[in-house]
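Continuing the batch. This is chain 6 of the set; chains 1 through 5 are on the previous pages. Same settings as before, nothing changed between runs. Recording input and output for traceability.
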Amino acid sequence: MRIFVLLSRVPYPLEKGDKLRAFHQIKELSKKNEIILCALNPLSGLDKQKAFSKLQPYCLSINFLDLPIHVRYWNMLRALLGRLPVQTGYFYSNKAAKEINRLIETYKPDHLYCQFIRTTEYLKNSPIKKTVDYQDVLSHGIKRRMEKVSVFSKPVYDLEYNRLLAYEKAVFDIFDNKTIISIPDRNLIPHPDKEDIHVVPNGVDHSFFKPMDKEKKFDIAFTGNMGYPPNVDAAEFLANSIMPLVWLKLPKAKLLLAGASPAKKVCALENDKIKVTGWMDDIRDAYSSSRIFIAPMRIGTGLQNKLLEAMSMKVPSITTTLANDALAAKNDKEILVGNTAEELANHIIRLLNNKEDYNRIAQHGYDFVHANHSWEMATEKLHIIINES
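Output for chain 6:
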C-alpha cells in the first residue's frame, strides 16, 4: 500500500515525542508499504540535509514544506479571528495546502495518515481513506496549563480550550480511523463514540536503549525537551520542591536536567548540585550516568517516552499518577509512583538507600517495557488498521 504521511514537524532530530513516534512509525510501516512523507517545517535552523539522509531509507518521496515566521504569525491571527484553534491555524498555509494537494495528485496514495489535529485541515476534504493520530488530547493539555498561566492569559487559553474541544470532536467524524497513544487519553476525547479510537502506544528501541556500564556522576536525572511547558514545570517542581527534601537526608545528592532548548527558568535552576546540559548528542549518556530517573509530571498528556527509555536501560524510575496512567506500570513493582513533593522525595531516598529495592524496581521495569513496548509491536497494529480500512 502507498501511504501519504503528513506531519506538523520534520521527524528529525528526535528531541520531541511526536518526532520520535513519527520516525519509528515511518521506519516500521516502510517494511510493508511505500511511504510518501510530507512534513511541515516551522523551524528556520533545521539541518534539512541530515534529516533527509536519516529518513531517505524509509521513504519513496520526502517533502519538507517551510512555514516562515511571518506566515505562522499571520496564520495565528487569522485563526484567532476565525473559528480554528490556534494549534491548527498556526500550521495551516494556503501555499502548503496547494503543494500537499499536488503531491497527493502526483503520487496517488491509497491512504492518508496525519499526526495531530494540527494537520487535519489539509486532508479533511480528501475522498481518500484517511487516519488521524490524535496522539495526545490537546484540549486537555491546554486545560491543565490554564491553572498555571497569568490572569491576563486565561481568556486566550479558555478560548483555545473550547475551540480544541469542538475541533477534536469534529475531526472524529471526518476521518475513517482514529488512533491515540493511551486509554486515559482516549477517554478524554469529547465524542460519544470515543471507544472506537484505536490505542496505538509508543514503543522504545531496545537495541539502542539498553543497559550501559557507566560511571554514575548523578543520583537523579530528568530528561526531555526543556522548553516544553510540562517539562519546565516538572523541572522546577523537582529542583525547588522535591530536591530540598532529598537534601535533608542526602545532602550530597546531585541532579541532572538534560534535554534540548532549556527555558530560562530551567537554566536558572543550575547550581553546584544541579546540572543543566541543554542538547545532548546521545541522551543515553544522561540515563546511564544517573542512578535514578524521575519524571515528576504535573501537566500534559500522553505516554512519556523518557520513562520507556530509562526503564529499557534498567534505570529504576519514579513518576506521578498522571504519567503512569498512560504507562500502566505496576506501582512498587515496575515503577514507584507519587504525587506530592514528599512522596516523590521519599521514593528517591528509598531507592538510593535500599539496594534490594533499587535492583528489584530496575529489573521489573526493564522486563515491563520489553514485554509491552516495542516500535515493531505498536506499529504492526497501525499497519493493520490502515490496511484494513
